[in-house]
Amino acid sequence: MTDAVFRETAAEHRTQSLPLSHLSLEVGHLYMEDFEAGPERLREHFTLVRPWVDAVRAAAPAGSGKRPRISTCFLVDDYFSRFSTPAELVPMLLAEAERCGLTIDYLARESACAVADGVQLAESVEHRLVESPPPGSDGSRPPVKEIGWLANGERTPGVERLEAMANDLPSWRPPTETAARRHSVFMDVELWDDREQRRTWSCPFLAAVWQLARLGLLRHNGEAVLVPRPAPEGSFPRDWDDLAPLTRLNPAAQPFAAYRTCSVLPSRFLPVEHAVRVILGQVEVDPRALHQVAERSGREGVPVPEAVADRVAHVFYAGG
Amino acid sequence: MIVFAASDKGGTGRSVTSANLAYRRALAGDDVCYLDFDFGSPTAAAVFDVPGAVRGVAEGGLHSHLQGRNTEPVRIDVWAETEHEVLRHRPAGAGSLVLLPGDRSGGEFTVGREALRRCVDLFLRLNGEFDVVVVDLSAGRSYAIDLALEATSRPEMRSVPARWLVYHRWTRQHVIAAAGLVFGGRGIVAGGVARGHDEERLRGAIRFVRAAVPDPESPLWSQVPPAQSAWMRKCDQDLEVLAADLDIGYTRLLGSVPLEPVLQWREQLITDEDVLASRIANQETLQALEELAERLTGDEPWGQP
Amino acid sequence: MRVPGDPAAAVLLCGEIRTCLLQTGRSLPASAARDLLRLRAGERVRVSERPNLHVVSPDLLTGVDCRLPTGTGARIRAVGTVTARAVLTEGRVLQATARFGCPGGGPDTRRPWGSYLVRPGVVEPLGRLPVRAVADGVLADVRRPGELDLGAVAERLLGEVQRHPLLDQRVPFKSRRTRLRWAALRAPDGEGPSLGRFTLAEDGLRTVELRLPEGTDPAACASLCEDLALHDWLLTTLVRLVERSRLGSADGHEAVMALRPAVDHLLHLWMPRARVDTTLAPLWEVLEREPGFTRQWGTLVQRIRDQLALQAIPLLREALTAR
After folding, report:
1. Looking at beta carbons, which residues of chain A come within 8 Å of C39?
2. Which of B71, B109, B113 sits opposite A140 (nearest CB)?
């Protein structure tokens, strides 16, 4: 169609492409209480993380014998609770990381996974959920997304279709994981709650948005989102809202988004990350963005796994 | 517009009279659709003399549609499929007359969110296709009534005109029961208001139809002894007073249908043929039905300018 | 552009389109149409204004794992996603399309869901696909319970749009929706696209069987079928409006009043092939020869215009004598 004389841009698909690293390495995902515990807690965290970071770097494939492009990132929770100011916390964070020999290339705010620069990221990801159909799904049942939960299988049946005087009154049935290996590990993830007319996205859901952003698979009307901005000249702002959704702390950093991600986290994050995997396994990302990543990774000799959830890896360290 | 046909008790001739109204509207040129929402015992097809659907259809009826078991509810083109010899010839200028039957093994069911959504979609869709959509509800307080109230309370249904017909026999018990069905504690008005209906608007959209009314002035009773005739008049007046007290008097009356053996026993459509040629039905009944059908879609009987 | 999961390897493309009048008093301008079809946050609604206003929603996916319909009753389980989209023409006629493509075969067991999600609009059989039997099953007028229900997907989307608060539900005239099912098999090597059958069944069902060269874009195939469905609906609806107006038998003035909505809302919509891919446009020519869609439309329009002109004569005379 591109050779046509007449074109209407509003009638066409377009998807912006992004610079991509080989690996996005998350060196921490901390809550305000971790900061509240002071620099010692941060130091302890980075000390435990450091050997795993080295291991991940060593194992990262680059293809064609070159050095892999790796960017590191750190996520600060300013969504569920707030503490102190970026002006106080960010320098402390950077100092403790550096003391342990770690460079943090990018700093993101967790609230940016909900809304970044006015774009409702979480909502647009929610609209892209396509639930894994249990066997027998013939298209006649609507997706149950309005309820704010997402499962990896079939729930215990409810009372929706209890019919008076029907002979086949259903008895209780256990939930089942779709495509389970004989026994189910059923998981039902809360995506959000609505209280006092305000929607609060759940931690796993925001973490799934975070993973998709790091994989370079998020777009808004085809445009890039969560574009990194340079660190402010001088000191960091006194209000979290004044800090960019994503800040490039290291001017020499490799691109933020990458073919694959790896997160080094304390083991208490295991259930959250399981939930993230359940979500990622049921998100239909922009097919053109998907194509850009697949095409370029293939050309570099480091093809990405087909399923998005398989591009995400974790290292869980004990404690914390 | 959507017309909901309700009754507190059985035996009011709700289905047969509503079917006759649908038929009359189609004769007048409207495109008409008749929905059998009598989930307990779907029988409307019998009135239209449609073979194969007499006690509802085996599968694909309205119940299973609302429960999501079939996407396309069965539609029966009455003019084409009836076995009634008069109905088979669609008069020139008549509108379509379509029946959506219930399922034979229906049964009442609870109203879930999905059933509600399907019901709203069905109403909106039929409203876009037909001038008049008659919904025959089960007798008494039922899930069918809840579903109708719930569906019509939705914002997307707000500009779709909805009218309610409540049928009752002209007896003391039936008058009290009909008033209770509409104005009682768990009645249609209270149930509607609880679902967000505007009370005045909902009340204004409800009219009563008196069924099987013996007319003391009718030639049928002209031979009875004077004492009996006086007694009949007295009873009739007492019922009028009772009805007025219960707020179901003249202002809320759409019309009356006389006691008519064809409606009672044959439970079928009354055609002009039945009155003029075979003379098995009374002229008064035909007139009453014609008048009702006209008032059904008119604005004045519903207090609208 | 070829994207991964592009079912170019599909040996069978199937779909169902439901076409109806948008349930609102006035046709929607471009901006409102865009809001109406913004079914997904963060994704563009495509708007084209030449040669007529044509607005296309983002694609929505529905996951399925069920039997494919087959003409033979063979039980073929398949897993994947059905693509659905809504299309609004001139802010007046709404269509919902649900479609999928099928490769010739697949693994014997279900794969992880993420692998299906990267192939939007592909439903993959477990084992080998009996192409002919499935094409027949898709086109059949009855659907067995438990078989893939494209109609339900399209219907749900249509319902979602028609329930939108932008619509006032006050339709200018009553009309019936139509359903068009299509199945496109692969054309023999070296042959161009061809139209096998176009069937008008009762109950508003139309079926189309096509043969397309390997590599035909499934979206282009869907656009062609949407165009066929749109014009078939226009014709069906206009025929019915003329019939109901009792043109020729009723009082002329009454007939004209009954035809007024057609003049206001339908007559300008006829524009076959407006958005059909050039390689598929010849398929329309077949229908123009037999039965002659545009010929029938032209005749109806002429009848309406003649009637309007006749009715205008007394008015004209009045106006002249009043001078």
Report:
1. 127
2. B71
